[in-house]
Amino acid sequence: MPLHDTFPILIPLIILQFGLAIWALIDIFRHQHYKIGNRYLWIPVVLLISIFGPVIYFVFGRRDY
Questions:
Q1: Which of 36, 40, 56, 63 is spaced 20 to 30 Å from 8 by Cα?
Q2: What crossing angle do the helices spanning 39-48 and 3-30 adopt, rounded to 10°?
Q3: Sequence-distant (≥ 6) Cβ neighbours of residue 20 within 8 angstroms
Q4: CB atoms within 10 A of CB 57
């Protein structure tokens, strides 16, 4: 399948990935207390594990305030 056929499908996924990563990074820098780990653990998780990193952070790392 050529790239120009799949590009319209990829655009929303790319926007979702970057949006979640930015949201998670903002949340990481705003707060200092997490359910598991610390800031130095969560930044690489969010940045290196594609779309699942931010989801993992919001499920396991973000502390409910």
A1: 56
A2: 170
A3: 51, 54, 55
A4: 27
Rounded-to-integer distance, Cα 19 and Cα 25, Å: 10
Rounded Cα distance between 38 and 61, Å, is 8
| CA–CA dist 62, 13 (Å, integer) | 23
Concatenated DSSP letters of 11-31: HHHHHHHHHHHHHHHHHHHH-
The pTM of this model reads: 0.82
Alpha-carbon distance of 42 to 6, in angstroms, equals: 31
Per-residue pLDDT of 8-58, as tens digits, reads: 888 999 999 999 999 999 999 999 899 999 999 999 999 999 889 999 999
